[in-house]
Design a protein that fits this description.
The chain has 13 helices and nine strands. It is α/β, with parallel strands linked by helices. It has one domain: Alkaline Phosphatase, subunit A. Helix 1 packs antiparallel against helix 2, helix 4 runs parallel beside helix 11 and helix 10 runs parallel beside helix 11. It is globular and about 50 Å long.
């Protein structure tokens, strides 16, 4: 009997199930990495980060479409995440219980991560978040230029995530948003090409939905100017890639090289191919995300503008259904809202972050924004979360 079947058969309260998931991750990671028992040893005085450098940058990587422990942290899934397990986790503080108490849709959940408030709008509506985003807090309080905050995201609605509809923030204070698939579609259309559909698939849950273009989205001509990248070079490189996430990471690297933004948010989305019901493609998405996270970290470490002063946060937006829940569809969807769908993880790497430490106390998705504020030096005053002491 596997871990999740035994968990569900003897299920207690949602809180107890969430703690059980976190405990499993903690014990598994400690067994393979020899990690320090962070919160368990310092329950009265939480383990804090070391002093951070004066000049700071932050890169946030989220997974649009979480991966279950069966395909990642369980023994049978370990082979799918060799870079996370062998390279990144030993350098990180790893949180085993990150609980999402909001709506389990990718755009609205990512917006909740970016605002520190559980947003309640329709996941498939082309609307901005109601509450100020981390990008607006960052730019307004620290008086940062528009070139210093960017989002690279899938194009199924994420064109509005850069800035909120809040009266005190909003227009002109958000992040620039680059949707690589939308740019590639425009480039191919202008060149009269109609192929590369594997790079252009836009929404795995509702294929008929196409968001309106609005917000602070970067267009093809602007991309060429900002990234010093010709349309022909962009399309030529795209032809060599296997997935939309590879295209997103390519664009993120160009941003880092040309503008070196202090706040860069990258949303990976390949794992969400699970909605198609193809288990093999879901596994490929996990394996690719694992590799791309390591590539992003290696880029940070090798770039003089980022090395030694960048904190990297990696976390899924939420989990997926169990195979044993009658109301769900297993790996394919995230419909039940049970603890397995809501409980995920986060790793944090960078200067001042303690390495090879596992924290098994629960934190929430909305804690991310105030924690970013503590790292970068701004106050997320309207967020509903709390700074995470082990990072702040």
């Amino acid at each position: 009997m596997n871990f999740y079947r035994s968990l569900l058969n003897g299920a207690g309260s949602p809180r107890e199930m969430t703690q059980a998931v976190g405990t499993h991750r903690r014990d598994f990671l400690r067994s393979i990495t020899g990690a320090t028992a962070g919160a368990a040893l310092f329950s009265l005085a939480p383990l804090r980060a070391l002093a951070l450098p004066r000049t700071r940058k932050v890169v946030v990587v989220t997974f649009g479409g979480g991966a279950r422990d069966e395909e990642t942290f369980m023994p049978e899934g370990q082979e799918n995440i060799p870079h996370l397990l062998n390279e990144l986790i030993p350098q990180s503080t790893f949180f085993t219980q990150v609980v999402n108490r909001g709506i389990l849709g990718h755009y609205v959940a990512t917006a909740s991560l970016a605002t520190g408030v559980y947003e309640t709008f329709n996941n498939f509506a082309a609307v901005p978040p109601d509450n100020p985003t981390v990008f607006e807090y960052f730019r307004r309080e620290l008086k940062r230029p528009a070139s210093d905050a960017w989002v690279v995201a899938p194009s199924n609605g994420f064109n509005r995530i850069g800035e909120s509809d809040h009266r005190g923030y909003g227009r002109g204070l958000g992040a620039g948003v680059i949707l690589p698939k939308r740019l590639l579609a425009a480039a191919l259309s202008s060149a009269g090409e109609g192929q590369y559909e594997h790079l252009l698939r836009d929404n795995y849950e509702t294929p008929l939905y196409t968001p309106e273009l609005s917000g602070n989205e970067i267009e093809l001509r602007q991309m060429a100017e900002i990234l010093k990248l010709s349309v022909s070079d962009f399309t030529a490189h795209a032809r060599s890639l296997a997935s939309p996430d590879e295209l997103s990471v390519y664009i993120a690297r160009q941003l880092m090289r040309q503008l070196a933004p202090s706040l860069l948010w990258i949303t990976l989305h390949d794992i969400d191919i699970a909605h198609s019901g193809a288990y093999s493609l879901y596994i490929e998405g996990i394996q690719r995300s694992d590799r791309l996270c390591a590539e992003i970290w290696n880029t940070i470490q090798s770039d003089p503008e980022y090395a030694g002063k960048t904190t990297l946060f990696i976390l899924p937006d939420f989990g997926r259904d169990s195979d044993n829940d009658a109301g769900g569809n297993g790996f394919q969807h995230h419909r039940t809202g049970d603890p397995l769908s809501r409980t995920t993880w986060m790793m944090v790497l960078g200067p001042g972050i303690r390495q090879n430490v596992v924290i098994d106390r629960a934190v929430e998705s909305v804690d991310l924004v105030p924690t970013l504020g503590s790292v970068l030096g701004f106050s997320a005053q309207l967020s509903h979360g709390n700074p995470i002491s082990e990072v702040s």
